[in-house]
């Protein structure tokens, strides 16, 4: 994954790069580094740890003046996180500095070739191989940096977003992209350029951005308009400058202690933004251009295959219930990473829905490329506008959740479910599998969900008390049935991700086929037991837990008495339709994991070993 930042222009580069790296830490945070040209020489500082650790060593080790520079925050793939493996990497001559996000797959053979020509390597990284390959090409073929980068990249197999500069020609930075995102911000006077993995590092400087496409590169020069070329044959491509629609406040904490908490509380607004203009209750219609324009593909589909990873995969599982229940279309939900490697049977009559918050997850992207190559129609459900999956899909619908910074996904999940519910309802209407009164009821209930989420958030104090009681346990079990089985999986994932407590999600009835053996008086079990949908069956499961002395935390419908009488604790959520209940039952589970993690002193927004956007397989 990794986050990359670069600057070239009239301002001091250092503060722009450091602040930019902090915004990109969601992409990885096991080491960080910076390279600046101070007017005379190349200055490099790097360290294991976070960007704040980098700041501390920069102050001791290098001068920070310079108008050109690059910086990197890393999520290790090749080589353990340590100072030496951190980026930027410098070529053997000391002239070239590079930052890289991605993986060079054939780096070992390239490295051997370079070693045979006298190159030496300090790190275990594929990136140090790439910078020396560029240097080697530059020397052998007497090429300018841009051409040398191009020639080197044509020898490379793998994925990359890179920025590289030469201290002997510090008025240009060369950037290139294949498989990893790269945005170039163009200063308002067109005399400065910002390079980054996404636009967040340069939002306060410019709203004009160019997203490089795969297999494209550019030599970015002071005061020169940006020209983008194809890496393969040097042909010029049109430069499409977009105007960013997000603002700085959206990517700041806004008074909350953590981004995760802010994003949990943003869900009422995010869900409203997601259905706004699509759900038109007065006219009893759903308007979604991506669905409307491709209605035939949807209606003729043999089945829908949903591909996704992580939390997005859980949203896909909820969608399986909704599509089958409402629109009567068979659905399969696949981990993108498994789907792409198991020779799946895909036909032209399949619709593949790819769900991804970032729109950059490498496995999901590869899965949709595979599906497209087999003729399937690919529909993307992404949050990040203009992301790779959004662009690669045949059609799609954005979730309008706004930027999600916390690594543990929250508002992305509920807005994905919102979009998928809208699609299922639209298709159900078109197929006639839902009556007009049921359709209206769904629209009405969906419109009321944001208010009900607000109500669910009011249980925060109760949840904090429960968190305090169970924060020191080693295991948690989460149970749910039907629509709420995926919510149980998501609740367990949230707890694992940020508190490092082992947790498993299970269908409540499956418990007796294994997990029941784990239950004793030390095991807390979160049971989603809302009134609509298998309530009596879940109550029986609760009885089974109780007779084995497990501690029961029930997620119940407001006013419930039956589960309250059996459970050790209950957390109430407002009543709604069973199909919409995941949008409410997931809220207390997010808050429970958040409070436990905070009480344990964990880094909620940047949990160990994780990254927000996984752009490697
Ligand atoms: C990472 C994140 C998860 C996320 C998953 C899929 O593992 O830490 O929160 O659910 O990637 O990401 P996507 O951007 O495709 O939804």
Outline the structure in words.
Helices cover 36% and strands 23% of the residues. The strands form five sheets. The chain has an eight-stranded antiparallel β-sheet with strand order 3-2-4-1-10-9-11-15, covered by helices on one side. The chain has 20 helices and 27 strands. With 617 residues, it is an alpha/beta fold. Helix 7 packs antiparallel against helix 15. A hairpin with a 5-residue loop joins strand 5 and strand 6. It starts with a strand and ends in an 18-residue tail after the last helix. 6-O-phosphono-alpha-D-glucopyranose binds next to helix 10.
Secondary structure layout plus pairing:
Blueprint (H helix, E strand, L loop, with lengths): L2 E6 L4 H11 L7 E7 L4 E7 L2 H11 L6 E7 L14 E2 L5 E9 L2 H10 L9 H16 L3 H9 L4 E9 L5 E7 L4 E4 L6 E4 L11 E4 L4 E6 L6 E3 L5 E2 L4 E2 L15 H7 L1 H9 L3 E2 L4 E2 L2 H4 L2 H5 L3 E6 L1 H18 L3 E5 H4 L10 E7 L5 H12 L3 E6 L5 H5 L2 E4 L12 H21 L4 H22 L2 H11 L4 E6 L4 H15 L2 E6 L16 E6 L5 H12 L4 E7 L4 H5 L2 E5 L8 H18 L18
Parallel strand pairs: 18-19, 18-20, 20-21, 21-22, 23-24, 23-25, 25-26, 26-27
Antiparallel strand pairs: 1-4, 1-10, 2-3, 2-4, 5-6, 6-7, 7-8, 8-12, 9-10, 9-11, 11-15, 12-13, 13-14, 16-17
Bound molecules: 6-O-phosphono-alpha-D-glucopyranose.
6-O-phosphono-alpha-D-glucopyranose binds next to helix 10.
